[in-house]
């Protein structure tokens, strides 16, 4: 129960906030890369830098999405387990009551 509460109150909201922050950071990186490319005398170097930032940014976003997805799946597993226990209890009560 404590694990579910931690996921619902801390881990999942923190993961969501991290993705929202990442969105803002990606916009800044895109603006920087565009400005850098336009102002750069060496377009090839600017393009390589843009590729590097893009790769790093996408890897970061993929990691955040994976972490959040795993937390959501863990939450769903815990809730499914709780539902199975409740179903078992209801079935037991039903069997006892009909005897």
TrEMBL record:
InterPro entries given in the database record: ABI, T_SNARE_dom
Gene3D superfamilies to which the protein is assigned, alphabetical: 6.10.140.1620
Residues in T-SNARE coiled-coil homology domain copies: 45-94
GO CC annotations on file: actin-based cell projection; lamellipodium; SCAR complex
A biological-process GO annotation: neuron migration
The family this protein is said to belong to: Belongs to the ABI family.
Name of the protein in question: t-SNARE coiled-coil homology domain-containing protein
Record GO terms (molecular function): SH3 domain binding; signaling adaptor activity
PROSITE patterns in alphabetical order: T_SNARE (PS50192)
Keywords assigned: Coiled coil
């Amino acid at each position: 129960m404590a694990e579910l509460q931690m996921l619902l109150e801390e881990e999942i909201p923190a993961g969501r906030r991290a993705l929202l922050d990442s969105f803002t950071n990606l916009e800044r990186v895109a603006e920087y890369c565009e400005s850098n490319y336009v102002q750069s005398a060496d377009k090839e170097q600017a393009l390589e830098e843009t590729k590097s930032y893009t790769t790093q940014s996408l890897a970061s976003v993929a990691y955040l999405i994976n972490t959040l997805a795993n937390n959501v799946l863990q939450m769903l597993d815990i809730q499914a387990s709780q539902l199975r226990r409740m179903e078992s209890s209801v079935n037991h009560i039903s069997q006892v009551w009909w005897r």
